[in-house]
Specification:
There is one protein chain. By secondary structure, the protein is α/β, with parallel strands linked by helices. The chain has one domain: TIM Barrel (Alpha-Beta Barrel), CATH 3.20.20. The protein is built from nine helices and ten strands. A ten-stranded mixed beta sheet has the order 6-7-8-5-4-3-2-1-9-10. A hairpin with a 5-residue loop joins strand 6 and strand 7. Helix 1 runs parallel beside helix 2. It is globular. The two termini are about 20 Å apart. The mean pLDDT is about 95. The structure holds iron/sulfur cluster (2 copies). The site of one iron/sulfur cluster has 14 residues, from strand 10 and helix 9.
């Protein structure tokens, strides 16, 4: 069942980087802090809500610090906890700008994680990322940072080399456990510092020639790993997850100007939400295969979800 426990505000579509694997719609859009707070109030006042946490994504959320500070303060007033602010860590002009910006977010009361997207696709300068991490440690604490990396199974160098190099620059030890599929976890640590790094492989949209070329199917998890949340796009559209197909029209379940109860009600009537959270996407894969409509296997549930959204209709037995 779809029962979201978190809200992620994708604060803006603006970003200082241009990563080749980015799925963010780059038309200029910014969420309004007033509308975001109004939506949070409707969550807070609803008797149907299981929402406990608030997180921030983008675009690059640190390009909209006034929004972050306003929504952080309102979230604290309403007793929400924080999950993470996802950032590329490379948005600041100079170290003074970096320190001031981080301090403003800290002073607003933010005590969640700083999630750093760091890999070969983002291609940040290592010196600047070392500076970013040291300043995060200084202001938020030495366990406040975590890394999310996308590994490439094709052309780019492996993520291990990049993470190992970063750990050496930070004088930290390095351990990793990465499977043959390229997914896994690493840790950069010493006695006083700990940075977990969560490693995923690149996702492919359904029309990408590299999609549906896997030797195994995804594990059905009813979107527990990427879902059970309300992802509020910078356009104000609301999706039921942070999977890459979450800008697809068939997955949208409301607007930030709706009430939380109205969004939940729309989600209850949404066919894609029912498939992803109740029936299971693997059932759709079986139906599509029987009808000869599957181009191959994918180990990424969101790729199949994207295919279904593009087809605009779902298979029925
Ligand atoms: S940092 Fe994130 S939002 Fe910006 S281009 Fe890269 S993937 Fe897209
Ligand atoms: S499979 Fe679909 S609903 Fe589930 S996380 Fe991926 S995009 Fe979202």
């Amino acid at each position: 069942m779809f029962n979201p426990t978190e809200i992620i505000f994708a604060v803006t579509t603006a970003c200082n980087l241009h990563c080749p694997h980015c799925f963010v719609n780059r038309e200029p859009n910014n969420l309004s802090a007033d509308e975001a707070i109004q939506f949070l109030e409707s969550v807070h006042n609803s008797t149907n809500s299981s929402i406990e946490k608030v997180g921030f994504s983008g675009g690059e959320p640190f390009l909209t610090i006034p929004f972050l500070c306003d929504v952080i303060k309102a979230s604290i007033d309403m007793d929400f906890m924080f999950d993470r602010i996802m950032t590329n860590g490379d948005w600041w002009k100079n170290e003074d700008d970096l320190k001031t910006s981080l301090q403003r977010v800290y002073d607003a009361g933010y005590d969640g994680k700083i999630g750093l997207s760091y890999d070969n696709f983002h291609g940040q300068n290592e010196d600047r990322i070392v500076t970013f991490i040291k300043n995060v440690w200084e202001i938020f604490g030495t366990d406040a940072l975590e890394i999310q990396s996308v590994n490439s199974t094709s052309t780019l160098p492996s993520i291990s080399k990049k993470l190992k190099s970063l750990s050496e620059r930070l004088n930290l030890g390095y351990e990793e456990n990465i499977s043959d599929s390229g997914r896994g976890i690493a840790s950069l640590s010493d006695e006083g510092h700990f940075i977990p790094a969560y490693i995923q492989t690149e996702s492919y949209q359904a029309d990408d020639p590299r999609a549906f070329r896997d030797s195994t199917w995804f594990r059905e998890d009813y979107c527990e790993s990427m879902g059970q949340l309300l992802f509020i796009h910078a356009t104000g559209d609301i999706a039921p997850c942070c999977g890459f197909a979450n800008e697809s029209q068939p997955l949208l379940i409301g607007k930030v100007t709706d009430t939380f109860d109205a969004v939940l009600e729309k989600a209850g009537r949404n066919r894609m939400v029912k498939i992803c959270y109740e029936e299971g996407l693997s059932k759709q894969a079986t139906l599509l295969k029987k009808k000869g409509k599957l181009p191959g296997k994918t180990s990424d549930a969101c790729t199949l979800c994207d295919l279904l959204c593009r087809q605009g209709g779902m298979e029925r037995p």
